[in-house]
Amino acid sequence: MLGIRRRHKIDKLDFILAGAQKSGTTALYYFLQKHPRITMGDQQETHFFDDDELFSATVDYDLLHRHFPPVGRSTIAGECSPSYLYWKPAAERIWKYNAQIKLLILLRNPVERAFAHWNMQRFKGREPLDFFGAVKEEKSRIAGAPPLEARRFAYVDRGFYAQQLERFFQFFSREQIMIIKFDKFRQQQHETLDSIFSFLGVEPLISFQSKDRNVVPYQRAMNWEERVFLYNIFADDIAKLEQLLGWDCADWKL
To answer: Which of 111, 137, 140, 235 has the fewest CB atoms within 10 Å, i.e. the most exposed one?
Structure first.
């Protein structure tokens, strides 16, 4: 009974894994969930801060907090919804909720991310168009679709990371945001996870089993014409991202 009395309902999330989609967020969520001092709630994606209906009137944050059990004083609470990075109002909504919150963001080569996103939609039976056709039709499809449906087909639009990060930098200090390259997360997983847990203020995991998560089989590989077409779309934004973060994204270029 004494242990129960020491637990309390959360009144604020301590951190959010905010994106980007198809960039390793499910794998990172898995590791965060395994940490004894972290609670990620009862579902992977609550989609609270990108639900426009919830913000059309007085916001009831209990609708978010009810997903989390009572926690001990040393436990931190986090949430994972990869669409927050992309959804324009989300940054300000999160800031109004908790201006001191920490944010985790994973970024993947936007060309590879777009293809993985399309492949996921094909696998789920949501995408009738081939990749090249879907990319070329994206603007018109988004313009004529309801917001929830439109973002499902935003293969290219989700990949403009520089402008998305700039929205978050308007509200949060650089010290509050940890941005991780997808390739580093996969290739140097132990080292990257240690730095993530340090950023969150908890000790590293003693041991864990690495495994790819949320991976669906690919129908085919991306061809060279598609790759060149996409890279030409993203080239300027990749250059802006390098300047914004001080990154070397040579491995994202042709």
So the answer is: 140
